[in-house]
Amino acid sequence: MARWLQQCPHCGYAAPDIGRAHPAAAEAVGAAPFRALIVDSAHPPLARRFLAWAHVLEETGALHAAAEATLHAAWVADDLGKSDLAVIWRQDAVALWRSGPALDPEQTVRVIDALRRSGAWSDAANTVEALAATNPPEVVAQVVALERRLIAAQDGDRHTLASALPPPARRPHVAHQRIARRPDGIWTRLMRMFRRS
């Protein structure tokens, strides 16, 4: 995760590539809230980098991307055993997702997982039921079923996506693998999304 974002040592601007700044980034970086954020020693340095990127994204209207960056800060807090910060940042991420455009089923699963991990049991349960009522794709439905069970048990721990999905019917031999990369399917996107959640 330390390599996911670059950060300017002078102004504190953080992004996947600081060489190509968002046009509105200069204004966001120069504002007092951003300046206060990057010097807040109560937050771990790597988390501050993700929060700085989230702040710029939020200021420029990219709310769903800001939610993802804020969730990454929560992952940093998890790794450092700072569960209080992880809860706050997950709740902030949920607020950002919900403030943006309508969520697709995969994004809604992210919201559910963030709610569950932050102990917002009632909200998580209501969101699970609302998503289940939309008849989501089968892969999403399997993850929703796992989230429903975890919420009922008030289990706020990490779980892998593999625990929601059935094992493959057979394991192909290494010689059967294709060399060419196929486009990412819904399984691949969900696996990538939940690799750290």
Characteristics:
197 residues; mainly alpha; 2 domains; two-stranded antiparallel ribbon; 9 helices; 56% helix; globular
Give a structural overview.
This protein has 197 residues and is mostly helical. The protein folds into two domains: 101 residues, no CATH class; 96 residues, no CATH class. Helix content is 56%, strand content 2%. It contains nine helices and two strands. The chain has a two-stranded antiparallel sheet. Strand 1 and strand 2 form a beta hairpin. Helix 4 packs antiparallel against helix 5.
Q: What is the makeup of the main sheet?
A: 2 strands, antiparallel
Helix content: 55-70%
Radius of gyration computed on alpha carbons: 18 Å
Helix-strand topology string: EEHHHHHHHHH
How many angstroms does the end-to-end distance come to? 13 Å
Beta-strand percentage range: under 5%
Given the C-alpha coordinates, what overall shape results? Answer: globular
Report low-confidence residues grouped into runs of 5 or more: none
Total number of distinct structural domains: 2
For the secondary structure, the number of strands is 2
Overall pLDDT score = 86
Count of DSSP H/I helices: 9
In terms of structural class, how would the helical and strand content be classed?
mainly alpha
Query: How would you write the strand order of the largest sheet?
Result: 1-2
